[in-house]
Design brief:
With 165 residues, this protein is mainly β. The protein contains one helix and nine strands; from the N terminus they run αβββββββββ. 18% of the residues are buried.
Length: 165
């Protein structure tokens, strides 16, 4: 009986010493960055211009809305080399002064780079060779120009794309 007790105790101690702490990815660990887009006035391309906007990824259900703001952050797909969005200016505002309820389609193309963080966090994705193409979805386009300011996306602390409207 004593042998069983000692053996059981030793097995319990071995099991305790073999445990590792849980791997938890710290909140401060950099993750896959989002695409940051700034909006500018077509008459003065250095002047930020607030916009009311609804953004929907083609094939997706989630709609990102901004109201009277100049910057938006949107996620790019990590399983393919392009993501298309419908950008609707002044959504649901048929009496808007400019481009009421007008959708444009914007397709962003890029290369994907997987970056290993660590065992707890796994991988994050960065993007390079970013390009953009806009086309009107309805009665013309409200986007007059798209400019790529930084074709490499490694963080989302500054904007990479300017949309002129």
């Amino acid at each position: 009986m004593l042998k069983k007790y000692i053996l059981g105790s030793l097995l319990f101690l071995l099991a305790l010493s073999a445990c590792e702490r849980d791997d938890i990815c710290a909140a401060s660990t950099p993750t896959t960055p989002q695409l940051v887009i700034a909006f500018f006035d077509q008459d003065n391309r250095t002047q930020s211009k607030p916009i009311n906007l609804a953004v929907n990824a083609v094939g997706g259900d989630e709609i990102i809305r901004i109201d009277n703001d100049t910057i938006i952050r949107i996620p790019l797909r990590t399983d393919t080399t392009s993501t298309s969005f419908i950008f609707t200016k002044n959504p649901g505002i048929p009496d808007a002064e400019e481009d009421p309820d007008t959708p444009d389609r914007v397709t962003f193309s890029y290369n994907i780079n997987e970056v290993y963080i660590d065992r707890a966090c796994g991988f994050k994705v960065t993007y390079n060779a970013l390009t953009a193409q806009a086309s009107g979805e309805g009665d013309g386009r409200w986007i007059t120009d798209i400019s790529i300011n930084n074709s490499t996306i490694i963080n989302d602390s500054t904007y990479q794309v300017s949309i002129i409207h």
